Amino acid sequence: MGQRTLSSISRGLRRWTAVALVTAATLGGIGVAITGNTARDAQASGGATADLAVPVSVDQLAPQTVDPYSEFSGRINAVDYVEIRPQVVGRITEIRFHDGQRVNAGDILFVIDPRPYQAAVAKAEADLATAVHNAKLAKLESDRSSQLVKPGAVSQETYDQRLNAQAVAEATVKSVTATLASAQVNLDYAFIKAPISGRISRAEITVGNLVGSPTAPPPLLASIVSDNGVYADFEVDEQTYRNSVRSYGHTQERQQQIPVEVMIRGDTQQFRGHLLSFDNRIDTASGTIRARARFDNADGNLIPGMYVSVRMGEGALDDALAVPESAVGNDQSKRFVFVANENDKAEYRAVRLGPQVEGKRVILAGLKAGDRVILDHLQRLAPGVAVRPQVNVRQQADSRAARN
């Protein structure tokens, strides 16, 4: 009985040990599997974090010298412009030009019937000849009386009368001479001449029409615009005016060195000129000052009356930092850019903008040399977002060219 009991106990212990060994082996395998899965999950998580970094192009800022321009609206005007109007009354008998023709100063453009004025000149010449002869006779009589009044052959009264007659005759000569000069001027006005050289408009009044009525303003016959260059007239705000004067100087000679460009609206061609003058005061109503630039216009593309876009230089800025316009964002009333910091995280920077320079914006405050400004994917960024910066090769080349 005792032996059977011991035998049973021994067999039970062996079965329990076997079960324990199997259980331990099973749990060990499960632990190995869990450990392996955890390692693989951690490795996958690290790769996913790297994939979430936003790839961006950056431009590392470097100081450079830039020439900013300010843009205004302007109008082209001729250097010289003349309206041709009659100065005497009469009918037009000739028109001696073609519409749009180039004329020279002194060329006869219109002829008003000259016959009445030729007759007036002839009459004045005859009156002058009569007056001259009368003056000669009066002088002879006066001289003769001066010799006879001493011996008493001629009375003092007669002598005085002849002196007076001589003075009146000489005054008559002057009066008739003036009348002749006036008649000659009117005759010259009958042949209407070009006062300047340039391109003439069409004739506004044709042959046979009566012009120059004394009771009405003289009508416009034609107009001439000079071809020795054009003006661009525009309005400059006070701040830009102060910047330009500060950069170039207060004298007109220095201000005439300010570069100016114009561009016809709807066209890409630019025309270069120089500032001619600023006005002598600032308009208190608009806060602007009138400015005028001059252009050679050798090809005649700038026509008086055109509206143009005017770009005026403000003077060179040294050690300036400039970023592309596309890199600048709006945050209500603020302007900002994103910078890739040393940890390759997006960093928000509020900036103060300066003038525009060839598609870029000068940064007055908020950035420093060496900052890596993010140029794209701004809509995917927020402060602290991981980024994968890639240097913008073209931007670097532009910056090196600007520095050189």
What does this structure look like?
The protein is an alpha+beta fold and 404 residues long. The protein has 3 domains: 55-66 and 317-403, conserved putative lor/sdh protein from methanococcus maripaludis s2 fold, CATH 2.40.420.20; 70-78 and 229-313, Efflux pump adaptor protein, beta barrel domain (Elongation Factor Tu (Ef-tu), domain 3, Beta Barrel); 82-224, OB fold (Dihydrolipoamide Acetyltransferase, E2P) (Beta Barrel), CATH 2.40.50.100. Helices cover 36% and strands 32% of the residues. Strands 2-17-21-20-19-18 form a 6-stranded antiparallel β-sheet, with helices on one face. A 6-stranded antiparallel barrel has the order 3-12-15-14-13-16. A hairpin with a 5-residue loop joins strand 13 and strand 14. Helix 2 runs antiparallel to helix 3 (156-189). The longest helix is centred in the first third of the chain and has 50 residues, at 2-51. The N and C termini lie far apart (111 Å). 22% of the residues are buried.
Descriptive tags:
404 residues, alpha+beta, conserved putative lor/sdh protein from methanococcus maripaludis s2 fold, Elongation Factor Tu (Ef-tu), domain 3, OB fold (Dihydrolipoamide Acetyltransferase, E2P), 3 domains, six-stranded antiparallel beta sheet, 6 helices, 23 strands
What is this structure's SSE topology?
Elements: H1 2-51, E1 54-60, E2 64-66, E3 69-78, E4 81-84, E5 90-95, E6 102-103, E7 108-112, H2 115-148, H3 156-189, E8 191-193, E9 198-200, E10 210-211, E11 222-225, E12 230-237, H4 238-248, H5 252-255, E13 259-264, E14 270-278, E15 288-295, E16 307-313, E17 317-324, E18 329-331, E19 334-340, E20 346-357, E21 360-365, E22 372-374, E23 387-391, H6 393-403
Parallel strand pairs: 1-23
Antiparallel strand pairs: 1-22, 2-17, 3-12, 3-16, 4-11, 5-7, 5-10, 6-9, 7-8, 9-11, 12-15, 13-14, 13-16, 14-15, 17-21, 18-19, 19-20, 20-21
Helix pairs in contact: 2-3
